[in-house]
Amino acid sequence: MSEPLTIIGNYLSPYVRKVLVCLELKGIPYRIDPIAPFVGNEAFSRLSPLRRIPVLIDGELVLNDSTVICEYLQDRFPGTSLYPADPVRRARARWLEEYADSYLGDVIVWRMFFQKGVRRFLFNEGTDEDVVRRAREEELPVGLDYLEAQLPEDGWLFGEMCIADISIAAFFRNAVFVRYQVDAARWPRVAAFLERAWALPAFRTLAGYEDGMLRTPLPEQRELLAAMGAPLTETTCGDASPRYGLMRLG
Fold this sequence. Notes:
Layout: E1 5-8, H1 14-26, E2 30-33, H2 42-47, E3 55-58, E4 61-64, H3 66-76, H4 87-121, H5 129-150, H6 163-177, H7 188-198, H8 201-214, H9 221-228
Parallel strand pairs: 1-2
Antiparallel strand pairs: 1-3, 3-4
Helix pairs in contact: 1-3, 1-6, 4-5, 4-6, 6-7
C-alpha cells in the first residue's frame, strides 16, 4: 500500500471508533479528517451522499457505512482476522455488530449523546430530558440485559477479539461521555467486558484524543489533535455550517 488510507469522521462517533479500532488492531496506517458531525461541506456531500460518517478513501475507492468499511478492511488486509472463521460464529458476530449499530446506536447515540451533547453544543437546541430519562432508565437496561446473557465471563465473545467485541465496546464509550456508568452489580459481565476492551492499546490511544476533544471548543479541536500527534489529513471537509444529514450516522 503506497499511501495511507483516509478516514473522514469524528473521534467521538462510535461508528468511526469501530473503524479506527479495526485499523489499529490490524496495524494499517491511516490519516483522519476528524470533522464534527453535520458540518461537512459540499466536497463531503459528494463523498458521502447520505452525509454520514465514517467515510473511507483508498485510492479511487470511496466507501460509506462502518460495517461496509470494516468488511472491506478484512478482505483487503486479511492478515489479522477480526471475524471468526467458523460460519456460525461469523454470523453471530455480524448480528451482534448490527445490534450495536442499530439498538445501541439509537439509545446511546441518538437518545443520550446527541441529546446531551451534539444537539446542545452544535445546534444550540434544548435537550429533551424525557427522551434521555427513558433511554437511561428503560431502553438501555433492556440492551444491557440482552448483552449480559451474551458476553463471556472472561475474554472475548468468540475466542479472539472480533468485530462484535469492538462494536459493543465502541458504543458504550459514548455512554461514558454523558456520565452513564454500567452497574457492575446488576450487569457484571458487561462491566468487566468493557473494562477489558477499553484497556487495550487501540482503545486507549483513541480515548486520549476523545477526552481531549470533549474538553476543547469545536473551533480549536483540530489544532489540539495536531498537537497530540493525531494522524491528520492536510485538508478538511469540515468547514461548513452545521446541518442535519439525510440519515443518521453509521
